[in-house]
Amino acid sequence: GFPFGQPIPMRQAKERFYPLFDIILGEFFSAHRTKESVISSLTAGLIEMFAAEVETKGPLFPAFLRLRERVFRAPEQDWRADDAAHELGVSKGYFHVLYRQYFLTTFVADVITARIQQAEELLASTPESVERIAERCGYNNIEHFTRQFRSTTGISPGRYRKQASKI
Questions:
Q1: 167 pLDDT above the threshold of 70
Q2: Mean pLDDT (the chain, rounded)
Q3: Residue 3's pLDDT is what?
């Protein structure tokens, strides 16, 4: 039942997972003669922790995970919470509760994140106009796109493109 190739939201990442990552990293760069076996044991523990995260999600988690994956693969679509809730067979309110519980963010925030990530990629890799990129990312209004882009990244789309071209 382990979802290979899919993101696993980590609850209490700072309290539970990050300290273990830190220990594994420290052991990796250590000169201890037993470091390989220690790293192996710690990694096995980490995998068990990931598996426990997936198991506690409930029966709807795989469907929510597939939905989220679709959002990030096609952010330009007209994503609506009402439609997603209907598709998953839950009320809109319960959809929002479960989405936040599963992913520690909102559905709307994920749609925005997916669209802005796609915009960043297109700005850095294509000569298309900002208006065309906004359309390709699901925005009908260039001003709305620019405000959301600036709010998310801290800079305008044009400045982002200039900075990306310098790299």
A1: no
A2: 90
A3: 65
Whole-angstrom CA distances from 49 to 8, 58, 123, 125, 129 are 11, 16, 38, 38, 45
User: How many Cβ atoms sit within 10 Å of the Cβ of residue 12?
Assistant: 10
38-59 residue pLDDT tens? 999 999 888 888 777 766 677 8
Task: Determine how many CB atoms are found less than 10 A away from the CB of residue 134.
Answer: 24
Pair 69, 96: CB distance under 8 Å: no
* CA 26/CA 6 separation, integer angstroms: 27
Overall residue count recorded for the chain in this entry:
167
Determine phi and psi for 74, rounding to 5 degrees: -140, 65
Rounded to two decimals, the pTM is: 0.68
- Contact, 79 vs 37, CB < 8 A? no
What is the full DSSP assignment across the chain?
A: ---TTS----TTIIIIIHHHHHHHHHHHTS--TTHHHHHHHHHHHHHHHHHHHHHTT-TTHHHHHHHHHHHHH-TTS---HHHHHHHHTS-HHHHHHHHHHHHSS-HHHHHHHHHHHHHHHHHHH----HHHHHHHTT-S-HHHHHHHHHHHHSS-HHHHHHHHHH-
Please give the pLDDT value at position 62. Answer: 85
pLDDT at position 53, please? 73
